[in-house]
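User: For my dataset I need records formatted as: sequence, then structure tokens, nothing else. Please produce one.
Assistant:
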Amino acid sequence: MRFDIISVLPDLLVSPFAHSILQRAQKKGIAEIVVHNLRDYATNRQKSVDDYPYGGGSGMVMSIAPFASCIESLKEKREYDEVIFMSPDGETFNQTIANELSGKGNIMILCGHYKGIDQRIRDLFVTREISIGDYVLSGGELPAAVLVDAIVRLIPGVLNDETSALSDSFQGELLDAPVYTRPADWQGHKVPDVLLSGHEAKINEWRHEQALIRTQTRRPDLLED
């Protein structure tokens, strides 16, 4: 699976993709993550990619020409299943969307900055707009990293134990059950006996029950349906 990310600050994305699961996925050849510097597609001497908004107002708006040039250049090399713009007014990202996108082949991600991007970029090129929450960040790089991380870990072969992702929170619309490790007794705080029993059916029943309790307590909205 390939991700092409267009950013005016590509250095912000170096660290998130150079460690842990994302690094291993790239070394295995399962995921390819390429970050493109939008300034490379600016035609002016200053390499600026923004301008004042029509109609007045505060802030600067990212220009259409550099984005169009970069997008069209990438599309000449391959077809994309989605061209995603990370935006606070997009659909809210969740596990269902991550599951869906993990089955795609090539995804392009646009990272905005400043006041926003020229609406024509969204109208002409973007196939999907995604938000990671109801708040505003300085740019789309961190949301893009979140999106890629959530998707890549679902691709078969990325995790050492492929069943691990199936038991994550929000898979099956439930939060995950509590988890424990050694020691079984730490200063009088003990691991639930059922987890030490070796009885798989009872353990699974306990985990499902605890997942329901946790979801009901913390995210009852997930159980509304």
